[in-house]
């Protein structure tokens, strides 16, 4: 559901990024106030924001926006730290206490804050990672769990935090659980977070040990999930190891991968051929032999080697084509 700050055309206003960030903080602060009607100042501010978003952009008074921002004593960017600490406390609120909505709002506000690069270090320094993982694993609502996953994805964009997130007990297993249980949006956030975490080599084994590959292979055939390309991206990363290839091979994924090589998106084809090539290299002759016997495999690989949308796709397809031709010649 859209809120005032989703609609407010901040990108069209000639104000500094600091003021825009402060406005977002105001919204996060306002939505966490349980009974705004007891404070006429808060009520007036909310009402004024609703009026502003209905006016023409050129009529919006920047000074008035600044007044709204400063009225809640969030007048400096440095006060983000206090907001993060408060949100961390609220996210620890347990389900069953009647505060499910508070927890959901807190983790949503944390997600909004994490989008700003400067806030990521504040979130980590405040110890919010423990609370995020707690909500991810056992949040009061599915929305809270999914927004916790999205926040972890946002934080995982920083290379230095990939290790910390991967080492946090329950983080990777919680993301894998969300892959099984979440909505389409939640599954996408979970798989994207796992993908970025895998760029730290030490996290790959943890992702596989958490049982991610069987879940990912199931999602390849789930059209309702709408995350086929995302799944192929992380499978291509996990297939770089022998253990990853062995688990993918056990899942009998080759027919599905060939189908995606034929009919998938450009990015999907690129990652599908990368997984197939890795399976052939790490899986031995039986994988190459099995692939060469599939009627549609060779034409699909040949087409990609010539018409692939990227140099990587063509290179991977050409390498796989050589292996298949060698197999055919030897037999």
UniProtKB/TrEMBL annotation:
<dbReference type="InterPro" id="IPR011989">
    <property type="entry name" value="ARM-like"/>
</dbReference>
<feature type="domain" description="U-box">
    <location>
        <begin position="109"/>
        <end position="328"/>
    </location>
</feature>
<dbReference type="InterPro" id="IPR016024">
    <property type="entry name" value="ARM-type_fold"/>
</dbReference>
<dbReference type="InterPro" id="IPR000225">
    <property type="entry name" value="Armadillo"/>
</dbReference>
<keyword id="KW-0833">Ubl conjugation pathway</keyword>
<protein>
    <recommendedName>
        <fullName>U-box domain-containing protein</fullName>
    </recommendedName>
</protein>
<dbReference type="Pfam" id="PF25598">
    <property type="entry name" value="ARM_PUB"/>
</dbReference>
<dbReference type="InterPro" id="IPR058678">
    <property type="entry name" value="ARM_PUB"/>
</dbReference>
